[in-house]
Design goal:
By secondary structure, the protein is mainly α. Helix content is about 70%, strand content about 0%.
Length: about 230
Amino acid sequence: MTPEAALAALRAHADAAKAADMAAYHKVPRAYLGVANPVIDDLARDWRQTLALDARLSLAAGLWRTDIHEARIAAAKLLTQARIRPTDAEAWRLIAGWVPDFDGWAIADAVSIAGQKRLVADPARLDALADWTTSPHMWTRRAALVMTLPWAKMVHPKPADLEVRERVLGWAAGYVPERDWFMQKAVAWWLRDLSKRDPDQVRTFLAEHGDRMKPFARKEAARLMG
């Protein structure tokens, strides 16, 4: 499967009217095909199941380079799985290398979901995210929170997982002064998900930092706690 063949498969489901709507909605200047997400899911699943790892990595890299919205979403979905064998090192390298290209939430979140799997597989990679938190690129800073969401959701965290929570909450506290909507939303998202597992920890965070969060973010962070 070449990137050209994969792109042709995506184009077979293109919808010009939907593409125009997507361009207006996302407000990011790139090509849109107007392909529905369930279609991308199905195509990426088929490619993921039928291609050897090297071919899949090559396809993901090639689709990303097209800078077409749906192709980049598909590239991320090609790498979204819990286990990649014999090694996921190249998959992580691709994912981390795409982060500086983020310029909108849809592609950033698709890649971040793939990144979540790779971080859970090897939490030592969190050290790389610590550097992201001081990046001048807002989407890179945001990715550090979105990619670590699995630790906010863990039902039975181990001591090492609790240490990760504390570490990420420290990053979130550092983001509180930022006024960008997407950054505030990311902080709120992490806290909201954590509140399902450890509401007291979220209450402590809000008591210390909530007065500096934007009202919508503070409200969203506490929404599930009653």
